[in-house]
Amino acid sequence: MKTRDKVALAAAGLAVASAAGTVFAGTSGAVGPSPAPSVQAAETSCVTDGAGMCTVPHALGAVPAAVVVSANTPGQFNAYMLNTVQGSYTATTFQVRAMFNQTTPKAGGAIWFSFAAYGGPVSPPTTATPTKTPPKTTPPATTSPTTALPPTTTPVPTTTPTPGGGSGSGS
Questions:
Q1: In terms of Cα–Cα distance, which of 96, 97, 100 is closest to 78?
Q2: How far apart are alpha carbons 111 and 81 in whole angstroms?
Q3: SS3 for 72-134, per residue?
Q4: C-alpha closest to that of 98 among 75, 66, 77, 72
Q5: In whole angstroms, how far apart are CA 42 and each of 56, 63, 107?
Q6: In this structure, what DSSP letter does residue 163 have?
Q7: pLDDT in tens, 55-87
Q8: Which residues does 123 contact at the CB level (< 8 Å), separation at least 6?
Q9: pTM listed for this prediction
Q10: Cα 88 vs. chain centroid, distance in angstroms?
């Protein structure tokens, strides 16, 4: 391969790499849910009971929506499976169970693990907005029912024309 071909190939590779970097740089700003969920992540240990279970405290202040656990084993012959116990989540604790296999619990032994407890979204404090109350309207005054009297008629005096077409005054 000639030197000129090598330079052209290197320039093409550089152009592709910079274009890819531009594409990735434009999409690297991850945005999470809003409002953000409450999360507590920690590393802890406990001693299991006869069923391989132990209760773990958390500081979410609410019942977790999900808890993820990961066993941390100190040696190659100390492996165990670790799961959360269904229905054990409370506002302050959850339970885990360590098992050597599907039928043998890690009973009475110390276990080390990491966990992440996820709560629901943390809502920003809400301020009560005063609702505008409509102005009070007084209902129309009601009148007590009265019995209607028949209308009275007043006789209207009538004048009769006098013979001769006069005004009737005699002059």
A1: 100
A2: 10
A3: CCCCCCCCCEEEECCCCCCCCEEEEEEECCCCCECCCCEEEEEEEEEEEECCCCCCCCCCCCC
A4: 72
A5: 11, 17, 23
A6: T
A7: 999 999 999 999 999 999 877 767 899 999 999
A8: 35
A9: 0.52
A10: 23
Show the tokens assigned to 43: 């590393």
Amino acid type, 114:
S
Q: Give me the DSSP letters along 46-64.
A: EE--TTSEEEEE---SS--
What is the β-pairing status of strands 110-121 and 66-71? antiparallel
Structure tokens at 15: 């152009």
pLDDT at 102 over 80: yes
10 Å CB burial of residue 115 (0-12, 13-18, 19+) is buried
CA distance 41 to 19: 38
